[in-house]
Amino acid sequence: MILISVDTLRADHLGCYGYQKVRTPHFDSLGRQGTIFWNVGSPVPMTLPAHTSLLTSTYPFVHGVEENGGMVPRGAVSLAGVLQSHGYSTAAFIGGYVLDAQFGLNRGFDSYDSPFHVHPQPDQEPPDLKRPAESVLHSTELWLEKHSGQPFFVFIHLYDLHQPYERPSSPGLSAYDTELSHVDEALGQFRTFLETQGLLQKTLIVVTSDHGESLGEHGEKTHGYFIYQSTLWVPLILHWPAGVTNQPARIDAPASLIDVAPTILQFLAVPQPPEFQGRSLLATDRTAKEEEVYAESLYARNHLGCSALRCLRLGKYKYIEARKPELYDLAGDPRELHNLYEEQRPIALDLQRRLSSLMSHNQAQHPAQKPASAEVLARLRSLGYLGAPAPRKDSLAPDPKDRLGEYLLYGDAIRLASTGHVPEAIRAFQNVLQQDGTNLLSHFYLAVCYYRLHRIEEAVTELNTTLAIAPDYSQAEELLGTIWLQKKEYAKARQQFAHLLTIAPGDYGAHYNLGILAMRDGQWADAARELSAAVEADPASAPTREALGSAYLQAGDLEHAQLEFVRAIELNPMLARAHDGLGKVFLQRGRSREAASEFREALRIDPHDDDARNSLQRIPAE
Length: 622
Description:
CATH topology of the domain at 2-118 and 125-284: Alkaline Phosphatase, subunit A
Strand content: 5-15%
Distance between the termini: 57 Å
């Protein structure tokens, strides 16, 4: 079976859901030959949390992934893992960095294609954070050609609709609809491939999305801040294999993305694990009672110190719990323009009680998330996300609706910083701080901007202000340690990174930099210990593997040095230092021919590698 998630796709922008401004013939064709579920909601309008709910069939407050950059818990039971245990070959093909393998969604997949791993310098924005639908689908086709002769589960993630957009707007179309038209064309080509391979008529194909896009509704430009239908309403299309009959063309009953995995398992006759919290949409008793549909966003709470947003839908009514609560009749007011809370308070209070009961009976199963690394946050920032969460536990926190202006100013500042307009970003952050001098993240990202312009003293001042507001804010600690390292104030740097580990145990940057400091002092055992911890935090970092190999080499542990250099080269064949290090290992082991080959490769990659050149010249000619 094939599960396709088109990131950031609003249901009401597809032709099969009634949209007429852009043609989506290939989405519509799948709908005509299957069942369209008309009222499916995302449990959270954020990519990683929503996909975690989709694939684990659990509420976000249960799996604990609140935001992008979090980690899917190791113990989470996923659709991929269940099918893998029942003999299915499993593969995923990812279009956006937000679902990179390092965040843990890869568990249960035999193959997880997410080629986004690259470590930028502290003052650089990372490249290659998304890849086009054609590339994702081409990789999928190559895999299917080899594995479609056996039961398989393929998960496809298409990221084209997520800002920043890659294509200019077509005449008469918005940028969003232009991208949607392109995705539809790519989907059509993939559909043709499936038909040619004889897979279209014998494969269950599920098309959905993680969340929608506000596109200016309720004042929100993108997604993640509010939980109105513009970002919660997602499409769900089940294209049935040939021979499946008696399935309705359309189902209107409200449902959630957490119901998708149980639906797939029921169709495939695979038992649903007890950890799944959703219910199959094919269950015969679903029409017997109205289902509760839950959603949340903690974004405004985590980033601006607002109250959390949570909602519950039952039938046509939707209750939003906030400092200023809201109630909407979605049948008569689908755009949620008329708040009925005061007029229909008994209904609102009933939904409020149901919401409290739902959460109290479904306690979190996994520990709280550790902070994302500075590198992860840099990538998310370049995709328009605001940065590292900094929750405030204020029972009198303002309603997100009252802080929308500050959120928009802050978002504009983030976008300016991530697109290289750093002086303009500095002015924008200063404008935010004029409105709210305690805005922690504005102080922090103002420091980042000063750092990128090499205005180091101003960066240090803003970082100290950040830490005065939140003494254990790990990202500020890490950047401050990096500054001390660059200023060659090594004792301060070592102290800063050691303190960071008391706040964020296992932090990649802290372990890596402590390892580099230990190497500088010739403390090879300490260096190997710290760099091993950094590798554990980020196993796919080739430079870290190379540094660890160098520490082992200096300590005389040739076996482990060779293993790390080889792994670094597997991760990045163009890393000259790893070839140079491996050459030195071979030289000490008396394998001169292999050593010479590695030194030559290092020089081919980097002709200015004098170390490799000198080592090569010392090898006697055969």
